[in-house]
Design brief:
The protein contains nine helices and 16 strands. By secondary structure, it is α+β, with helices and mostly antiparallel strands.
Length: 355
């Protein structure tokens, strides 16, 4: 895949070539190693002094030179058929990809303080990056995190757009005490959420990523939320419902604190990871920084998925559907109306990669 912005790192992290990532480099493509997956490392000199969010907003992002990525083929199904199909597609949030400055330090924090397990680790010296996959269960049935360490890069800009990750725990106070004992940073002590009754706390990992600890009974999916800020909540809800086939699970307005949230996903919150979209009154744009990368979603058909996104409008395909060079895993990638990236991965191909 690429070496610039982890496009998706998971059992699918393939390096396209040096110019793919977010399309910030224009070097000619080269065949990737079949050992790589869907994630991309960040090439330092290509990102120097560049804000990816600004590139996206201004429409100046350079596309990869590969003809397969430049082409925008005519859709093969009608709008109504596409909207019906996305509702029936077998979709699941697979993993979330982001970058860290010290991989071993982060692994230690997640395993000792958050109770995650290191599922696998992969070093790609020729592309100068390493991936680590962590979570609360196997990748074929759980939502996991994919950490990306780019050789020599020890710090990233998280920006103002990314919110936090959510982890469900049975006892927030006990978890906070453990984190404090390990030297972790607690930014909000346990207590009721603003405008609600749920007991929560906030902590930060060594790179400054925020985690919301949510007190909840036993759940099959402890890694339960990814919160992103958006500039137009209704526009985002419509996009994720129609283009992604997600369900609006609930919506809550908090006029006292001037924000509204919408929980979107492929199943109930107590059993599945969800996307939490947050709209802060009057704020239309945010800086996305270069730390957070994207979410990966499983699908039965990447071609129909791309068609549905094109037909709905509001988003933009950044990687046409098809097999990754060097391996058979089929993917397609897109940006939502706010520039948040998602990568759809063929379910069968993904399962084969985990074998």
């Amino acid at each position: 895949m690429a070496r610039i912005v982890p496009v998706i790192a998971s059992s699918s992290s393939v390096a396209f070539s040096r110019n793919l990532h977010l399309g910030l480099c224009s070097a000619s493509p080269r065949p990737p190693s079949p050992l790589l997956g869907l994630g991309f490392a960040i090439h330092q000199h290509c990102l120097s002094g560049i804000r990816t969010s600004r590139l996206i907003k201004r429409g100046t992002c350079i596309k990869a030179s590969s003809p397969g990525n430049m082409a925008q083929p005519i859709t093969t199904i009608g709008k109504e058929e596409a909207l019906e199909w996305v509702k029936k597609d077998n979709r699941r949030l697979l993993h979330v990809v982001y970058r860290v400055g010290d991989l071993e330090r982060t692994i230690k924090f997640y395993t000792e303080c958050l109770g995650m397990k290191l599922l696998r680790k992969r070093d790609i010296p020729e592309e100068k990056y390493t991936n680590a996959f962590l979570g609360y269960g196997p990748e074929d049935s759980h939502f996991v995190v994919e950490l990306t360490y780019n050789y020599g890069v020890d710090k990233y800009d998280i920006g103002t757009a990314f919110g936090h990750f959510g982890i469900a725990v049975e006892d927030v106070a006990k978890t906070v005490d453990l984190i404090k004992a390990k030297g972790g940073k607690v930014t909000r002590e346990p207590g009721p959420v603003k405008g609600g009754k749920s007991v929560i706390a906030f902590i930060e990992d060594p790179d400054g990523y925020k985690f919301e600890l949510i007190e909840r009974g036993p759940t099959p999916e402890p890694l339960c939320q990814v919160m992103l800020r958006v500039g137009d909540l209704e526009r985002s809800i419509e996009f994720y419902e129609k283009a992604f086939g997600m369900e609006l699970l609930r919506k809550r307005d908090n006029p006292e604190y001037k924000y509204t949230i919408a929980m979107m996903g492929y199943g109930p919150e107590d059993k599945n990871a969800v996307l939490e979209l947050t709209y802060n009154y009057g704020v239309k744009e945010y800086e996305q920084g270069n730390a957070y990368a994207q979410i990966a979603i499983g699908t039965d058909d990447v071609y129909k998925t791309a068609d549905a996104i094109k037909l709905h409008g509001g988003g933009r395909i950044t990687r046409e559907p098809g097999p990754l060079p060097g391996i058979n895993t089929k993917i397609t990638a897109c940006l939502d109306p706010d520039g948040w990236k998602s990568v759809f991965v063929d379910n069968i191909d993904f399962a084969k990669e985990l074998e």
